[in-house]
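Predicting holo structure, pyrazine-2-carboxylic acid bound.
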Amino acid sequence: MPIKITGADALIIIDLQNDFCPGGALPVPGGDAVVPVINEYISIFVNAEGHVFATRDWHPPGHGSFNENGGPWPNHCVQGTPGAEIHDGVALPSSAIIIDAGTDPELEGYSGFEDTELEEMLRKKGVTRLFIGGLATDYCVKHTVLDGLRHGFDVVYLDDASRGIDAEPDDCERAIQEMTGLGAVTGTIEDID
Ligand code: VGL
Ligand code: ZN
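Done. Tokens:
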């Protein structure tokens, strides 16, 4: 069933940053392959007067999730470094709202809603439905989708605009099951009118 985008819809691009792309500090396999797909979504949302948000994983140096502090990840997305910049192929409109997450040194901050103004900004814009894609499916995409549902938004997980880490085999598949099991629906560019 084709979905029509309106001013009550928001595209939320998750952590499409250099460090999560091939050559970065914590590369997601094929992470940069979603850039052209994300750009298609962006033009659809801009033309339909939907809203465009982009999150950044935005850690202070010495973040608690880094290996040097006993965390699970190599240093990545340190505030102000080139690795933390959004991939320069992403055609963000000037109206896009950037949300920085993971800024608390003690919190993983996988969800774009955690400790940010994302919910408040969405409410202010009258958004009721979220279209979420980006990196990584099994971490920040999943946690943002689940928080969106928890906050009462309708949520479409954009399967063609997301890639994951799969640290354990089938992590992404399980993440998708979890998201859809809790009420998200899966969508691709073909589903949009
Ligand atoms: C992420 C691992 C560590 C993500 C962020 O954006 O999915 N993954 N920090
Ligand atoms: Zn991180």
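The chain has a mean pLDDT of 97.
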